[in-house]
Amino acid sequence: MKKGVMRPGHIQLRVLDMEEALAHYRDLIGLIEMDRDEQGRVYLKGWSEIDKFSVVLREADQPGLDYLSFKCVDEATVDKLRTELINHGCTVEDIPAGELKDCGRRVRFDTPTGHKFELFATKEQTGKWGINPINPEAWPEGLKGMKAVRFDHALLYGPNIAGTAEIFINILGFDLAEQVVNADEAGIANFLTCSCKAHDLAFIECPEPGKLHHASFLLETWDDVLRAADLISMRDVSIDIGPTRHGLTHGKTIYFFDPSGNRSEVFCGGDYHYPDHPTVTWHEEQLGKAIFYHDRVLNERFLTVLT
């Protein structure tokens, strides 16, 4: 049953050099720089997103993920879910309004996979960038690079993904849209959604906690994904795999790395999910086809390079 979590709200990523990171996320992927704060963090968004920001970059000594936040329908929902998380045994921290610029208070909690997540309900809404909400045009002029539409999801690695899935499904109301199971029918990959998307968040079982595999951004068409591949080559960006199609979720995709080593994905298409849809299951022996539908073999770097 849905619990009032609407969608991913924002992701905070650690980068080693801010200007190099902005050349990647702003100039190459095409996110719009919306603001900066006194801590030196930079706030960005995809052009179609209503809220002021969906990506926060923080300069640090190590790359990776600080946290991923989800937006709830209202403050009462945040309070209710906060209580349920505490009762479940999660460590909960209250982050005051304004700690992130123009964002309301957030409730941060931990999970067995070693990641930090947040819930919030209030953030300044600036509307779609360059689009008037009255008689809107199809898309804004002046976009850069890959012209990312939105921040879409993240794939995370850590231990006990079953315990983390329990929190997201039973407390936060996510559905298990797709999974990979081993010969014992134990889940080794979970794709979770709080919307109609194929996934808003995914996990792969890994002994090392708190790892980021990739942050993903939506493009509109397959031609846009091919154009993204051209831009990656034009700018000599480190590429991981693609363009190709996934078996899991069936999205058309390409993976590449930011200058700090964080993996990015841009993709288009993919499946959709409603609450009455059964969970789609892949078997571990078909993992090559599940991840890279065309090649049907695994790229070792894709499975092992994490931040």
Automatic annotation (TrEMBL):
Pfam families: Diox-like_N, Glyoxalase. Residues 7-122, 150-269 form the VOC domain. Belongs to the extradiol ring-cleavage dioxygenase family. This is Metapyrocatechase. Transmembrane segments: none annotated. Keywords: Aromatic hydrocarbons catabolism, Dioxygenase, Iron, Metal-binding, Oxidoreductase, Repeat. PROSITE patterns: EXTRADIOL_DIOXYGENAS, VOC. Homotetramer. InterPro entries: Catechol_2-3_dOase, Fosfomycin_Res_Enzymes, Glyas_Bleomycin-R_OHBP_Dase, Glyas_Fos-R_dOase_dom, VOC_core, Xdiol_ring_cleave_dOase_1/2, XylE-like_N. GO terms for molecular function: catechol 2,3-dioxygenase activity. Its cofactor is Fe(2+). It comes from Neptuniibacter pectenicola. Its EC number is 1.13.11.2. It catalyses: catechol + O2 = (2Z,4E)-2-hydroxy-6-oxohexa-2,4-dienoate + H(+).
